[in-house]
């Protein structure tokens, strides 16, 4: 975003904030300042945390190549000539990690040519900045180029909050939200509750930014942040670099938070200057008071935030989370005992650092500092060591400064600047399929199947420096802080705490930037979608609601336990079809655990009784018979990714209603946008009532109204019925989406 736009925003803030202070009768947090100064219409807007639906004007939209395909296909349906807000596309998710940066890039470009051509031509036509494959991972590139204090952006990726490291409210959303904002509509979100995290003390030694967020994951759990903004402040915040702050905000997605952000400070200004934005740093310094919470808030946080957590950074130990969920946390010092107790394989099969979460210069330096100690002592890494730089800028800088050669000396492989092993795009040959094995990484997600596509891989997440040290021990039972490993001479070797500069002393090196500006005249550009493509398919509008209640629908699937978007619509090899709704729908619920059988990905056909078929096969059969179906789910259903395929595939194959104990924010919105009715049990115990042979009716739909419960009736095989109450969070406008068949239909 150009400095003049930022200047205009800052100039508009004082008057808007004053009006808000008067109207609310109190001082403002930073999150509130940003929301208020981006209100579509402050005066008519209702403000009520946890209740009101906010209509906001975003400063920017970011898309990546996996979710961005659907976002653009939907934007195209709106029939606009140009995007209404600054937007970018980033090619990062589709690059497979196999044999190292160069070969992987070449392979990706040829494998994904069709998709890249589509994204490139659509970007050129509609006025969108295009970041080529290899330029970097969306969140790192956004942090380096576009994020700024006090801004509001949305991105079709759940880790968009990474930009909170620079004091921006950056929110992960589905592609439809992005498409609409790009088409010029106000963007809507539930007025979030606020969690204040007050940091005291100072990070030092082994403790790093990652430990703050892994510790919080354990404390707040994967649903603790749902519909909340997490705002960090306090004297301890200044001991964290801007990129460290980015790590914390990035992984706030694992708490389900709407977003996370830090108050503006000198370390953000330093980062803006180091990334060629001295003008923006100066602007922010001049508006400093508007880019932090009001002094009254800092003096009495409990009065201004809905919840407050205090963390003394001087006492924070390094943490590690996993396997299978990011909230399974403990200090590294307690891991060995748990590994023994649980019988997890202690041998680490791979150690990975980098990704959008942890690939700052500081991260790389601290990891290299550990590697150098080991090299000097004559040690060799015991496990394969893979490095994913977040951007071309980081890649070139660590190359210039010798960090990369350190990693190479320990036997490490530097992969392309892309998502690769973080999103199931990691082609491993070292373990057999379904072989139980352990890996450690500095990434943010660890759902089963997340990295190499195998649900048997147990993935642990921790800081890059701990990952690196563990690579030399080759064992989860090694505590780098307190433990020793045998040196080459047999004598115990102990690491000293990592050190690293926050920003490169010689500045960032520049590589091939990889940015392409849109065409001056978009009219002359044609969007490229080959007619016979198996990767891209133009969207057909979903049918309107026919005005009738849902009567005696079968249950396609009742999921048990964690049902993330990775369970509903897996990534990995399926990324190939992210632009082709029909093809990608073959992956529907492949990872979901069938509550009736305990098996993943398969269920019985409720009409024929046939078993052993994938949920997609069953759904396609039902659809062919003209039968719609329902989904029953557990807690925090749809947690994880923003991918709207997890809502579109069910919609496409006949889902009418999804009834769960609770939803993750982005997925609930995605269902609403696609015209599926998302309901929650008024009494979560009702989940237990649903049996395989039941038929489900949802009645009174013509009277569907905001805040009004809905009756759901279970028709049992023995002819009896049970009626339960279910709740929904649809606003009147969203009910309009349901009736129109989708938000997009309602818009037209
Ligand atoms: C992820 O980390 O799960 C992803 C892959 O970046 C997703 C987006 C996607 O599925 O394409 C996300 O976080 O939203
Ligand atoms: Fe890519 Fe992983 Fe970051 Fe998602 S979390 S954007 S897959 S690096």
Description:
The strands form eight sheets. The chain has a seven-stranded mixed β-barrel with strand order 22-25-26-27-30-29-28. A six-stranded mixed β-sheet has the order 6-5-2-3-4-21, sandwiched between helices. A five-stranded parallel β-sheet has the order 16-15-14-17-18, with helices on one face. The chain is 30% helix and 18% strand. The chain is globular. Helix 10 runs antiparallel to helix 11 and helix 15 runs parallel beside helix 18. It is α/β, with parallel strands linked by helices. The structure holds alpha-methylisocitric acid and iron/sulfur cluster. The site of alpha-methylisocitric acid has 14 residues, from loops.
Task: Spell out the blueprint of helices and strands.
Blueprint: H1 3-24, H2 30-37, E1 53-56, E2 60-64, H3 68-77, E3 87-90, H4 101-111, H5 113-126, E4 129-131, H6 138-145, E5 152-155, E6 169-172, H7 175-182, E7 187-190, E8 193-200, H8 209-220, E9 228-233, H9 242-250, E10 259-262, H10 266-274, H11 278-286, H12 295-299, H13 301-304, E11 307-312, E12 319-321, E13 329-331, H14 335-342, E14 348-354, H15 361-376, E15 385-388, H16 392-400, H17 403-409, E16 413-414, E17 437-441, E18 457-461, H18 464-473, E19 485-486, E20 492-493, E21 515-516, E22 550-558, H19 565-568, H20 581-584, E23 602-603, E24 613-614, H21 615-624, E25 629-633, H22 645-652, E26 655-660, H23 665-673, E27 677-681, E28 695-699, E29 710-715, E30 721-727, H24 732-740, H25 743-747
Parallel strand pairs: 2-3, 2-5, 3-4, 5-6, 8-9, 8-11, 9-10, 14-15, 14-17, 15-16, 17-18, 22-25, 25-26, 26-27
Antiparallel strand pairs: 1-7, 4-21, 12-13, 19-20, 22-28, 23-24, 27-30, 28-29, 29-30
The structure holds alpha-methylisocitric acid and iron/sulfur cluster.
């Amino acid at each position: 975003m150009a400095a003049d736009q930022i200047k205009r925003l800052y100039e508009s803030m004082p008057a808007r904030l004053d009006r808000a202070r008067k109207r609310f009768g109190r001082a403002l947090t930073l999150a509130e300042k940003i929301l208020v100064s981006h209100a579509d219409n402050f005066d008519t807007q209702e403000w009520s945390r946890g209740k009101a639906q906010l209509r906001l004007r975003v400063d920017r939209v970011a898309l990546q190549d996996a979710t961005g395909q659907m976002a653009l296909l939907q934007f195209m349906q709106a029939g606009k000539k140009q995007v209404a807000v600054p937007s970018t596309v980033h090619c990062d998710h589709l690059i497979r990690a196999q044999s190292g940066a160069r070969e992987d890039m070449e392979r990706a470009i040829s494998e994904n040519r069709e998709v890249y051509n589509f994204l490139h031509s659509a970007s050129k036509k509609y006025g969108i900045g295009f970041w080529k494959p290899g330029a970097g991972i969306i969140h790192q590139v956004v942090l380096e180029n576009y994020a700024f204090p006090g801004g509001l952006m949305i991105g079709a990726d759940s880790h968009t909050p990474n930009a909170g490291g620079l004091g921006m409210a950056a929110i992960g959303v589905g592609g439809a939200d992005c498409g609409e904002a790009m088409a010029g509509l106000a963007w809507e979100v539930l007025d979030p509750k606020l969690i204040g995290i007050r940091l005291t003390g100072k990070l030092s030694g082994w403790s790093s930014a990652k430990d703050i967020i892994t510790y919080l994951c354990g404390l707040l759990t994967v649903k603790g942040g749902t519909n909340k903004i997490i705002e960090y402040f306090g004297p301890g915040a200044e001991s964290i670099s801007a990129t460290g702050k980015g790590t914390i905000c990035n992984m706030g997605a694992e708490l389900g938070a709407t977003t996370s952000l830090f108050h503006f400070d000198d370390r953000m200004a330093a980062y803006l200057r180091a990334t060629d934005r001295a003008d923006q740093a100066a602007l922010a310094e001049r508006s400093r008071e508007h880019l932090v919470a009001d002094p009254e808030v800092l003096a009495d946080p409990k009065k201004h935030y809905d919840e407050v957590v205090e963390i003394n950074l001087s006492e924070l130990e390094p943490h590690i989370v996993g396997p299978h969920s990011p909230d399974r946390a403990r200090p590294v010092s307690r891991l060995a005992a748990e590994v023994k107790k649980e019988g997890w394989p202690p041998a680490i099969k791979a150690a990975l650092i980098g990704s959008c979460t942890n690939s700052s210069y500081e991260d790389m330096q601290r990891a290299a500092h550990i590697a150098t100690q080991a090299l000097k002592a004559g040690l060799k890494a015991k496990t394969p060591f893979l490095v994913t730089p977040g951007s071309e800028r980081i890649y070139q800088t660590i190359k210039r400064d010798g960090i990369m050669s350190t990693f190479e000396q320990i036997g490490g492989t530097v992969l392309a600047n892309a998502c690769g092993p973080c999103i199931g795009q990691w082609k491993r040959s070292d373990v057999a399929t379904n072989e139980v094995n352990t890996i450690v990484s500095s990434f943010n997600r660890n759902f089963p199947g997340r990295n190499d596509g195998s649900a048997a891989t147990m993935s642990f997440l921790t800081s890059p420096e701990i990952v690196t040290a563990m690579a030399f021990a080759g064992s989860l039972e090694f505590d780098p802080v307190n433990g020793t490993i045998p040196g080459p001479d047999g004598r115990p070797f102990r690491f000293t705490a990592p050190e690293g500069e926050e920003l490169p002393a010689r500045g960032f090196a520049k590589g091939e930037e990889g940015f392409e500006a849109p065409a001056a005249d978009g009219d002359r550009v044609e969007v490229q979608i080959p007619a016979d493509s198996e990767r891209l398919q133009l969207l057909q509008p979903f049918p309107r609601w026919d005005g009738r209640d849902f009567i005696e629908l079968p249950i396609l699937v009742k999921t048990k336990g964690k049902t993330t978007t990775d369970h509903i619509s897996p990534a990995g090899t399926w990324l190939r079809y992210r632009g082709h709704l029909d093809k990608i729908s073959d992956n529907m619920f492949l990872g979901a655990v069938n509550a009736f059988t305990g098996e993943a990905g398969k269920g019985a056909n409720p009409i024929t009784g046939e078993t052993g078929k994938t949920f997609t096969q069953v759904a396609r059969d039902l659809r062919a018979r003209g039968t719609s179906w329902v989904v029953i789910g557990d807690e925090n259903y749809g947690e994880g990714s923003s991918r709207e395929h997890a809502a579109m595939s069910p919609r496409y194959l006949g889902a009418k209603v999804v009834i769960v104990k609770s939803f993750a924010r982005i997925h609930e919105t995605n269902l609403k946008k696609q015209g599926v009715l998302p309901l929650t049990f008024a009494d979560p115990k009702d989940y237990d009532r649903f049996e395989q042979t039941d038929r489900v009716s949802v009645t009174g739909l013509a009277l569907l109204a905001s805040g009004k419960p809905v009756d759901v009736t279970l028709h049992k095989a023995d002819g009896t019925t049970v009626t339960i109450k279910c709740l929904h969070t649809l606003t009147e406008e969203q009910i309009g989406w349901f009736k129109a068949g989708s938000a997009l239909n309602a818009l037209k």
